[in-house]
């Protein structure tokens, strides 16, 4: 162990330690917020009771004490070298006992280090329109459309780009790894779905149908207990066709439930961050999600 002082934390003497033994307990770097054991050397301030990686200290002091990013704020931002309890203007959260905030003091603007790089415009599968980031969510007492908790007054979040839509999300809800696909779509043209790409089933002449998964035309049959649906298996869901109407092939016995045949080829599922595509494995005879 070595005692020293640094320009990053000049008021107190710091203790420098080597690699952390796994049994020493969890220690979190106050700068990068990851486990101390992820890098070999670290500092400890006994007075303030916090740790930080030597590497994080060096990187911060050499290049990241100030950030000039007009997309985030018009003025240069300066790192606050103290633990803080300020609301972040971008997300509204208070992360007390953390040293992770930049500020523009003339503007009274405070923002978490990670929030500096929040995407401007995103598209989520849980909503039909794009969302844009704002530093002021109006009517903050209304809840987040995902977690239903209210917003912090005067702080930011994501709002629907369609002004007639009241859909809005906390910044941290909108950019959660299970919700957001990681893309900032600002400036990108909106994707338009071609009906040919979405529709699985085409009506040929009113009696005959064509499904994208099968090379023969299909006819509609009705199951009445003794009809042609007996012992047939739907090639989409692999369940028996034992009631209602179905689509079948006269040439090879291929069959689909009406409902399965009408599934869209592309869809968005609110609990998964990427759009889903319906695919068919001809050899195995079933549909899979790509």
TrEMBL record:
Keywords: Repeat
Entry-linked InterPro entries: C1-like_sf (IPR046349), DC1 (IPR004146), Vacuole_Formation_Reg (IPR053192)
Superkingdom of the organism of origin: Eukaryota
Record bears the keyword Endoplasmic reticulum: no
Domain DC1, residue spans: 72-116, 212-261
Classification via PANTHER family: CYSTEINE/HISTIDINE-RICH C1 DOMAIN FAMILY PROTEIN, DC1 DOMAIN-CONTAINING PROTEIN
Protein name, UniProt field: DC1 domain-containing protein
């Amino acid at each position: 162990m070595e005692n020293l002082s640094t320009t990053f934390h000049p008021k107190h003497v710091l203790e420098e330690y080597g690699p952390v033994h796994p049994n020493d307990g969890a220690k979190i770097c106050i700068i990068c917020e990851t486990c101390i054991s992820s890098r070999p050397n670290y500092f400890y301030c006994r007075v303030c009771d916090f740790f930080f990686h030597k590497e994080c200290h060096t990187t911060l002091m050499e290049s990241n004490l100030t950030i000039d990013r007009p997309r985030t704020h018009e003025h240069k931002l300066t790192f606050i070298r103290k633990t803080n309890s300020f609301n972040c203007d971008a997300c509204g959260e208070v992360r007390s006992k953390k040293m992770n905030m930049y500020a523009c003091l003339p503007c009274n603007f405070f923002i978490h280090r990670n929030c500096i790089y929040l995407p401007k415009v995103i598209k989520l599968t849980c909503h039909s329109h794009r969302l844009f980031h704002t530093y002021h969510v109006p009517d903050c007492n209304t809840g987040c459309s995902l977690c239903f908790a209210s917003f912090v007054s005067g702080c930011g979040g994501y709002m629907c780009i369609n002004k007639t839509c009241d859909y809005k999300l906390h910044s941290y809800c909108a950019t959660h790894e299970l919700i957001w696909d990681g893309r900032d779509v600002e400036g990108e043209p909106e994707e338009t779905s071609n009906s040919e790409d979405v529709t699985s089933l085409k009506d040929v002449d009113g009696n005959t149908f064509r499904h994208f998964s099968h090379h023969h035309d299909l006819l509609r049959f009705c199951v009445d207990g003794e009809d042609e649906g007996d012992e047939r298996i739907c090639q989409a869901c692999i369940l028996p066709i034992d009631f209602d109407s179905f689509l079948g092939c006269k040439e090879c016995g291929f069959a689909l439930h009406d409902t399965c045949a009408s599934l869209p080829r592309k869809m968005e599922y609110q609990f998964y961050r990427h759009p889903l595509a319906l695919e068919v494995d001809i050899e195995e005879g079933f549909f899979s999600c790509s």
